[in-house]
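Example 3.2
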Amino acid sequence: MQRVLCLLIFPLMTLPLIAAGDSSVCYGTTSNGKLSNGVQLPSSGPNFVVYSTVARIAGRTYVHSEVKKIILAAYKQLEKEQPEKLYKYAETGFESGGEFKPHKTHRNGLSVDFMTPVVNKEGRSVQLPTNPFNRFGYDIEFDKKDHYDGLYIDYEAIAAHVVALHQQAKAQGHDLWRVIFDPELQPNLFKTQYGAYLKANVQFSERPSWVRHDEHYHVDFDIPCEH
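Structure, written as tokens:
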């Protein structure tokens, strides 16, 4: 029993501690870069959770310190603006950045995947299921009616989240570089109450990515890096 407990606790003990005053430094680009003093996102908050506790322990949820501030501030903003909505973040990157398979980016702490918010048949916000059997959510495919296993894409929640991320990034002197979300689904975001803001302030990738990006949306933050 003691051996089992040690095995479970050891990964947590070996995670490096970052002093409160330390700031991250990113290098290069999202597709060819690295990160110094990466910080880990918390496992949960009042309106959000991590996509996998195992993946978090494995060190797959590190970001630039400024990105962490923006993400948490955005979730805090959403607590007031969309109090009934639930959110889930997914893959981010390693503490020191670098290659992050199977992703082509996520290498310098500025790339974050967010699982698509959904509602159930009653219209209530629930979490998209993420587990080893669906590759922690990344194997989920919504049909042409935005439906998957009794769940429906919540475009209002996505739009509100992207707006909050942009506003909090700007409040901290930064910006969003781009948002990757299935181009065929993007028009539904612009039909929400946040549509005009999104069109005026956020750059969405118009080209289909190498994976569909319907079960998650990818956000690249615009924060100065060393080259």
